Amino acid sequence: MTISGLRPHTLYTIRLTSETEHKEWVQQIETTYETAVLNVRDFGAIGDGEHLDTQAIQAAIAAAPLGARIVLPPGVYKSTPIFLKSHITLELEEGAILLGDTRREAYSILPGVVEKEKEDYYLGFWEGEPVACYASLVTGICIQDVKIIGKGIIDGNAQNSDWWVDAKVKRGAWRPRTIYLVDCTAVTIEGITIQNSPSWTIHPIRCKDMQFINLSLINPKDSPNTDGINPESSSDIEIVGVRFSLGDDCVAIKSGKYTLPPERRLASKKITIRNCFMEFGHGAVVIGSEMSGGVKQVKVERCLFKNTDRGIRIKTRRGRGSTAIIDDIVVKNIKMDGVLTPFTINAFYFCDSDGKTEYVWSKEKLPRDERTPVIGKLSFENIECINVQVCAGFIYGLPEEKIQSLTFKNISVTFKEDAVPDYPEMLSFQEKIARTGFVFRNIIKLSLEQVSVAKQLGNPFLVEEVETYNYK
Questions:
Q1: φ, ψ for residue 457 (rounded to 5)?
Q2: Is the separation of the CB atoms in 305 and 311 below 8 Å?
Q3: CA dist., res. 126 & res. 256, Å (int)
Q4: How far is 114 from 339, CA to CA, in rounded Å?
Q5: Which of 37, 57, 137, 320 has the smallest C-beta neighbourhood within 10 Å, fewest atoms?
Q6: Contact at 8 Å (CB) between 256 and 233?
Q7: Which of 201, 121, 135, 217 is nearest to 173 (CA)?
Q8: What percent of the chain clears pLDDT 90, i.e. is strictly above it?
């Protein structure tokens, strides 16, 4: 819940009362000081959904003093990409829609690499590599102290354009996101609805101190690559109270590909995801598969996953590199309903043009080298999964670099009796299965405590090449 409509620079007392525990929490807060409020209509915006309002909105942003709030009142504001600046708040009031222009040629292009005297600057990114991309409807580059708030809607309008047509074909440049943030610090996006994204909905890359709170991210189930929030090489991220209903992963944590120079492979870390509702995506919370910089210190708690293909999903493969370290992942207090496979760790993910080569798919023990990824410590606790169809958990590490430590505690999985066979993960030569228990392969230390599987076909636990196995 977001409290809105408060006056700036004012002291408020917030009281929270628990009906069950008969307790009350009292806290005083002071709202932020505002220097000015700028209405985009005063700058010439029409808001009729027909005229192009980009110039008026951009003029209001350019004219805003530090600490100002730019307001979009009720109306439909058709726009090409707008660019934010530091120390402002952009508010979409209830009834306001920022609507993306459908013309591909109306979108400016962000080059992948901008040459600099000492160190090239990476700007446009697509699936872990610096390449030319169309600017996004809302774009922030090197900004700080920015808020995007309100009860309005940012609509990428992709269903009325050609962004979803031949989506894997590059035409001019790669598809825009709806909100794209590069090298930004202290950005909060709260309260708004974002829908019909051309590709990933919110994509912060090389960002720090980001908050995504009480959002609704809505894309059609069949829309291509319309992930929800994809932090890439970013740290200190909070994703709280967000509703996801999408055509791809709800949250996908990434950190680039091995083609990046080692000094550019930055880890994504210190990420908290809580109190979220995730529906219809390919995965609810996903790590990878572009994660050559590593992903560390991720906590997922108090979330509901419903009708996603997979729940917690780790995707990696040979070729991501020894810097691709996944470690310190904690997942607890989760409910899953209708998730096809609740837990997957796949070290043979067959993405990219070379993803189906023998180097990637071979189950033989290959030499460890600078291309070998690492999966460290992961723990799962207090998780209930019902109406599961495919597999309770599909965990498959590399034989030459086994998963270091997995802990499952107080986990229950119940299968749907009329389950339909499907693939538990995306790897070569894997057949469709149904109502299969936990599959564990290539792990150093595996601990199961109070883990139950019901209505499965066959053995609830298949354990192969596990060095230390504790079951309670």
A1: -105, 120
A2: yes
A3: 9
A4: 43
A5: 37
A6: yes
A7: 135
A8: 92
Non-local (6+) Cβ contacts of 454 within 8 A are: 412, 413, 414, 415
CA distances from 462 to 9, 211, 332, 359, 381 (A): 60, 40, 23, 25, 20
Q: What pLDDT sits at residue 76?
A: 98
pLDDT at 277 over 80: yes
Classify each residue of 140-174 as buried b or exposed e, where b means 16 or more C-beta atoms within 10 Å of its C-beta: bbebbbbbbbbbbbbbbbbeebebbeebeeeeebb
Residues 6+ away with beta carbon under 8 Å from 47: 40, 41, 53, 72, 73, 74, 75, 76, 77, 96
Average pLDDT, the chain: 96
Place of tokens 């929490």: 25
**Are the beta carbons of 423 and 390 closer than 8 angstroms?**
yes
Reported as a pLDDT band with limits 50, 70 and 90, residue 134 is very high
pLDDT at 414 over 80: yes
Q: Which residues pair with 344 in a beta bridge?
A: 313, 394
193, two tokens: 């609805």
| 300-321 burial: b if 16+ Cβ within 10 Å, else e | bbebebbbbbbbbbbbbbbbbb
Q: Please name every residue paired with 141 in a beta bridge, in sequence order, or none if there are none.
A: 182
The closest of 440, 435, 431, 444 to 461, measured between CA atoms, is 440
pLDDT given at position 4: 83
If you search the block for the tokens 């090489």, which residue do you land on?
233
User: For 366, which DSSP code?
Assistant: P
Residue 116 confidence (pLDDT) above 90: no
Q: pLDDT by residue (tens digit) across 86-96? A: 999 999 999 99
pTM: 0.97
CB contact at 8 A, 38 and 71: yes
**Given this model, what pLDDT does residue 1 score?**
73
Closest among 232, 230, 200, 198 to 212, alpha carbons compared:
230
The bridge status of strand 37-39 relative to strand 113-114 is unpaired
Alpha-carbon distance of 243 to 85, in angstroms, equals: 27
Q: How many CA atoms lie within 13 A of 313 on its CB side?
A: 30
Q: Does 21 have pLDDT greater than 80?
A: no
CA distance 363 to 343: 20
Rounded Cα distance, 283 and 51, in Å: 38
